[in-house]
């Protein structure tokens, strides 16, 4: 990327540096970064190789291969990731791991023993002090080996992504409605989820190259895709938020989703049962 392209790329970025800017960004649809002076996470983690070894052997961990981006089944590849020598898995493996049951690692001498005190309680306290309430605020782990990409998809949650090891590029659109109108996404079953990113104008893409320590907010029901860097595994802990209000008022996309659910109550709570 040329210097000019780099400067232009950064001009698109949205960054919340204080509580007022945080609220302003939440009222829009683009993803944005949280500046360290607004909020940052601090917690010592074991080497990413050790975390991979812990997670791959946990029965709640989902394994995804690049050939099977959407389905996650206990096939031959998954059994290899879980059971092969860790050195072989780290050297040859092209896969992603996710785990949504982090409380399994909160016990004494486990790698997330301090997680509630160091991460979740400070974050929830920050939100509460700014007048936010929620129905769900739950963490999960994503680890992707070098060069592994996610699907093109939209989440039924607001996601705060904290990059811990490695690099990844978080891609969305400057105008998400142009490629996935929110009025369509709120209809049950219409949220995009595909292996391929739709044809688009590269100038419409809003990309953030995330490095260790970076924190990004991904807006509910905004389409995006993520690509891990090539320098080693990319490890992030994400916090999924649902039912978020500020001083009693739902955030923008959340309000549209709730209006849809009110009109079609049979669709409510179906796509995300963790609320």
Main CATH class: Mainly Beta
How big a fraction of the residues is strand?
Answer: 15-25%
Q: Structural class of the helices, strands and pairings?
A: alpha+beta
Task: Output the radius of gyration.
Answer: 19 Å
Question: How much helicity do the residues have?
Answer: 25-40%
CATH topology: Jelly Rolls
| The CATH homologous superfamily | Cupin
- Inertia-based shape: globular
Largest sheet: 8 strands, mixed
Query: How do the strands line up in the largest sheet?
Result: 1-2-12-8-14-6-4-3
What is the residue-mean pLDDT, rounded to a whole number? 89
The low-confidence parts are: 1-9
User: What is the total domain count?
Assistant: 1
Q: How far from one another are the termini?
A: 41 Å
Along the chain, the helix and strand elements come as HEHEHEHHEHEEEEEHHEEEEEEEH
CATH 2nd-level architecture: Sandwich
Number of DSSP helical runs: 9
């Amino acid at each position: 990327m040329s210097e000019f392209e780099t400067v232009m790329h950064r001009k698109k970025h949205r960054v919340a540096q204080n509580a007022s800017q945080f609220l302003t960004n939440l009222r829009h649809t683009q993803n944005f970064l949280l500046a360290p002076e607004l909020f940052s996470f601090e917690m010592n983690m074991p080497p990413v190789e050790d975390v991979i070894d812990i997670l791959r052997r946990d029965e709640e961990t989902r394994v995804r291969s690049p050939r099977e981006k959407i389905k996650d089944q206990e096939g031959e590849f998954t059994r290899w990731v879980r059971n092969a020598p860790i050195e072989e898995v780290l050297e040859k493996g092209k896969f992603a791991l996710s785990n949504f049951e982090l409380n399994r690692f909160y016990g004494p001498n486990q790698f997330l023993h301090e997680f509630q005190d160091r991460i979740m309680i400070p974050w929830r306290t920050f939100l509460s002090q700014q007048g936010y309430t929620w129905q769900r605020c739950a963490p999960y782990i994503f680890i992707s080996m070098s060069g592994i990409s996610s699907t093109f998809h939209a989440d039924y949650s607001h996601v705060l992504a904290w990059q811990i090891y490695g690099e990844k590029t978080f891609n969305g659109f400057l105008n998400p409605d142009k490629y996935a109108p929110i009025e369509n996404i709120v209809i049950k079953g219409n949220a995009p989820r595909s292996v391929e990113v739709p044809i688009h104008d590269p100038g419409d893409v809003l990309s953030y190259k995330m490095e260790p320590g970076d924190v990004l907010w991904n807006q509910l029901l905004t389409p995006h895709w993520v690509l891990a860097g090539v320098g080693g595994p990319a490890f992030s802990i994400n916090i999924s938020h649902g039912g978020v209000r500020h001083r009693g008022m739902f955030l923008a996309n959340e309000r549209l989703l709730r209006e849809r659910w009110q009109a079609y109550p049979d669709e409510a709570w179906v796509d995300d049962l963790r609320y």
